[in-house]
Amino acid sequence: MTAHTPELLTRAQGEYLEMPGLSLTLAQAQRLWALDSHTCRQVLSLMVDAGFLKQRSDGTYIRRASGRHARTA
To answer: What single string gives the DSSP state of each residue in 8-58?
Structure first.
């Protein structure tokens, strides 16, 4: 985990909260947040593990509809 991970999580979660229905691939998330592949994958994985996001079978990451949207940072 990098020193900036809490800030990155807050930023990424903010994007998903502000744009309902947002669906991103790893590559799209990397471009949107200007992150390298490793860091971006780490941020997305942390959000999946926290129950904020889920990864669909096509590889895209979407916000969970279950109402579990507590911030992980």
So the answer is: HHHHHHHHHHHSTT-EE-HHHHHHHHT--HHHHHHHHHHHHHTTSEEE-TT
